[in-house]
Amino acid sequence: MRIRKTAAAGAVVLALAATATACGGESGSAGDKPAGGEVYSGDYKVASAPKIDSAVLKKAQQAKKIVVGVKADQPFLGFKDPATNKYSGFDIEIAKMIAADLGFSEKQIEFQTVDSNVRETKISGGAVDFYVGTYTINDERKKQVGFAGPYYTAGADLLVSKDNKSITGPDSLRGKKVCSITGSTPLQEIKKSKYGAKTTELGKYSDCVKNVLDGSVDAVTTDDAILKGYAAQRPTKLRVVGKPFTKEPYGVGMNKDDKALRNAVTSALENHIKNGDYQKAYEGTLGKSGSKYTAPQTPLPRY
Length: 303
Ligand code: GLU
Known about the structure:
Layout: E1 2-5, H1 10-22, E2 38-41, H2 55-63, E3 66-70, E4 73-74, E5 78-80, E6 87-88, H3 90-101, E7 109-113, H4 119-124, E8 130-131, H5 139-142, E9 145-154, E10 156-161, E11 177-181, H6 185-190, E12 198-202, H7 205-213, E13 219-223, H8 224-233, E14 238-240, E15 248-255, H9 259-274, H10 277-284
Helix pairs in contact: 3-9, 3-10
């Protein structure tokens, strides 16, 4: 195992992140990087290429690389360091574990940033071979993509500024401005009339976080796992309310018709949950932002 230093602290980091954002850099974090200094990065034993009837895998084997769609602006989950362009976080580790079982080393993975609103298009159009990015499994999405998992279950929650006392949970949002992301399940949920919130839709979570910081919205809603990462980045300015109001089971997305790949990815997840890699990765990434570890249930369903 290696521990990757997530680079320098303070002003340098802020300046670099600000530059990346100003230049329209896709990493566009809320202004800095994962708190805690170090994010775990594991080395996973690369298996020999599985002999399965998967069109996606065959294409990747010919190209000698596997293309994985991920998030870039979610600290501790899927985060692209603006200084090094390296991705880190729990979802990145899950992607590496799966790639290893499919016969690809870390060097053979090409990570591509894919935000929530274009996931289905990128997966079904073959732009990515599989996708690991806080992707909730649901019936609507299953019409377009295949899923392996769930490998983790989050819940929609609220991120507010630290001094906000009026937002205490989803029942206190009447008339409040709440930001979320196009194509995300928490946005669909918060638009329901029962909450009475005024919603703002943006393309990146980090932009919603900026809006809470500058006071232009009252709250951000998305999965608690994501929000805790942002709160850990700015503990003096932001807090997570802590009243999850949905269930968000995370799956690995891939081509709907590639059953062989789906089974192989499911087996890879089960394998790394059983051999301890999963827990180690969890504790070294997501666990650092305060999300408690619970072992996922195995065997995983075969969709
Ligand atoms: N898990 C939710 C979803 O898949 C929210 C997080 C995200 O946008 O990735 O829509």
